[in-house]
């Protein structure tokens, strides 16, 4: 079983600590700078609440981290927790690809958190821990990929947790699912039927989790972000405008 093999890897603790140290060196100047970044100013005033963005898990995690229902500045503790989530997620990705955990694999997985796309997220004193948690939620189910039903259920649960903490991480799950589908077929030599079956389970879990979140959990919001979508008649036009803006 993939999960058992993962936790039984030699030097598991050493590689985990090594990953945290690498992140620590990379983020030292950021943490030493001790500067509030964008939303940090608002959270430092209003006590932090993410329910209006349908991030209920983020609010609950904030209560746990702060040991009370009002968020206060406990950085760099929040960023350290975020790093721990990212290191653990990087170790999982390294194991899924290389079938082992070592220092080289950990270094290869470092861009998961230190790429320009996520480095900004680690700048947040309040939000970084929820963002790191959401990344881990997208990766964790794949430790159970050899047990289809459990993988499916854990995927739905973890994806809902991801949506309720930081929705923008959702693409990680499908990208990793597509990669592992190709790996199952081309590297492991499995049949095309098995590979496509695995991809189908990933897609089905993603759609069900997205449906549950959208229909039952999302609170409508129209600010600088929005929960609305382009109507089908404007989908191509709207998507083209987004690409133009980028």
| Radius of gyration computed on alpha carbons | 19 Å
**Topology, number of strands:** 0
Give the H and E element order.
HHHHHHHHHHHHH
Shape verdict = globular
Distance between the termini: 43 Å
Q: What about the largest sheet? A: none
Number of helical elements:
13
Strand content: under 5%
Structural class assignment: mainly alpha
Provide the fold topology.
Elements lengths: L1 H6 L4 H22 L5 H8 L9 H11 L10 H22 L4 H7 L1 H4 L1 H4 L8 H12 L8 H16 L7 H17 L4 H26 L17 H11 L1
Walk me through the structure.
The protein is mainly α. Helices cover 67% and strands 0% of the residues. It contains 13 helices and no strands. Helix 2 crosses helix 5, helix 9 packs antiparallel against helix 10 (148-163) and helix 11 (171-187) packs antiparallel against helix 12 (192-217). The radius of gyration is 19 Å and the shape is globular. The chain starts with a helix and ends with a helix. The mean pLDDT is 88.
List the keywords:
0% strand, 13 helices, 246 residues, 67% helix, single chain
Quick structural gist:
With 246 residues, this protein is an all-alpha fold. It has helices spanning 2-7, 12-33, 39-46, 56-66, 77-98, 103-109, 111-114, 116-119, 128-139, 148-163, 171-187, 192-217, 235-245.
